[in-house]
Amino acid sequence: MKIFYKDLAAKKIDKLVISSLDLALYQAIVIIKGTEHIVWKNEKTTLLTRNLTEMREYFEQFDINEITLRQESAYDEMIGSEPKKNSNRLEVPLGKSPYALPKHLH
Question: Where is this region: Disordered (predicted)?
Answer without folding.
Answer: 80-106
